[in-house]
Design goal:
Layout: H1 6-21, H2 41-54, H3 57-72, E1 86-87, E2 95-96, E3 99-100, H4 101-118, H5 121-137, E4 148-149, E5 152-153, E6 156-157, H6 165-172, H7 174-183, H8 212-219, H9 223-241, E7 249-250, H10 255-272, H11 275-282
Antiparallel strand pairs: 1-2, 3-4, 4-7, 5-6
Helix pairs in contact: 1-2, 2-3, 2-4, 4-5, 4-10, 6-7, 8-9, 10-11
Length: 283
């Protein structure tokens, strides 16, 4: 209610146009940095408001495609959940493996708001997955939220998160292992490049290059069957990974970053009607 300065809308329109001019149509997200891509969650939240006000189709397409590219990419931990700080390439494949509380808070908010506007369940599912990670690995016994998890373990960046194909096949067995390695792009030669030399290793960052719906169609099974199979495999790999040496956890509890996560939990609780998120925010 009351008078709204039209300059506010002009600024929003100009910002939306700026994002569109930097949009990566091939890999999604925005090319603002010379080499890296950072999760643009606050920008996506702005574009959501722009779409809601103007019904601009391109804004919504950028939002949904970018959220999917991040969630399916190597920047997202496909085994344990949570988004890394940034991708070192334009394809969202190779992250700087450090996980920050604020990035995950803003990612959850963008996902929940996208679900609010679109009603598409996948974005609610993605938010629930991040929130499971926060509850399991980033919440203190008093209820506050830890700041970060390091990129390194045993002196090597990403070692905790990388997989050899033969290791995955041995854990899952031939049938389930072949499905998982095909869908999550876990190859014998590996897809992870050494940062210094750029050479491929025989280790992999699990990630998707096409949607579960398209994979299910190609495999002639239902999407629900595919998801159930992948989830069973993910849990087995997670149980094995738990035995590895974990990255260092920064257990500082910062007021501002906790405020972001509390806000994300409150929004998720209201939109998804999930009382456990309300309790977590209150605690």
């Amino acid at each position: 209610k009351g008078t709204i300065n039209t300059l506010d809308f002009n600024g929003e329109d100009k910002t939306a146009a700026l994002y569109e001019s930097h949009y990566d149509n091939l890999n999604h997200g925005f090319r603002f940095q010379p080499q890296n891509k950072f999760p643009p969650s606050m920008g996506l939240s702005l574009l959501l408001r722009h779409h809601h006000r103007t019904a601009t189709i391109s804004s919504m397409e950028m939002i949904k495609s970018t959220l999917r590219a991040m969630k399916w990419g190597g920047i997202y931990d496909q085994i344990g959940g949570g988004i890394s700080r940034y991708s070192t390439d334009y394809r969202w494949l190779v992250p700087h493996f450090e996980k920050m509380l604020y990035d995950n808070s803003l990612f959850i908010t963008a996902l929940i708001e996208t679900f609010q506007i679109t009603g598409e369940q996948e974005f609610a599912d993605y938010a629930n997955d991040v929130l499971d990670y926060i509850d399991r690995d980033m919440t203190s016994k008093e209820g506050g939220f830890f700041s970060a998890e390091d990129a390194d373990s045993e002196g090597e960046e990403g070692k905790f998160y990388l997989w050899k194909q033969e290791e995955v096949l041995e854990i899952l067995g031939k049938e389930a292992g072949t499905l998982y390695t095909d869908v999550l792009n876990v190859s014998k030669e590996g897809n992870y490049h050494e940062e210094a030399s750029g050479h491929k290793t025989d280790t992999n960052i699990p990630h998707l290059q096409k949607s579960p719906a398209n994979w299910a169609k190609d495999l002639n099974i239902t999407e629900d069957e595919l998801k159930k199979g992948l989830e069973a495999s993910r849990q087995k790999l997670f149980d094995v990974r738990k035995k590895r040496i974990h990255p260092y956890k920064d257990d500082k509890i910062l007021v501002d970053w906790n405020g972001l996560m509390i806000a994300a939990l409150a929004k998720a609780a209201r939109v998804l009607q999930e009382d456990t998120y309300t309790s977590a925010a209150q605690k």
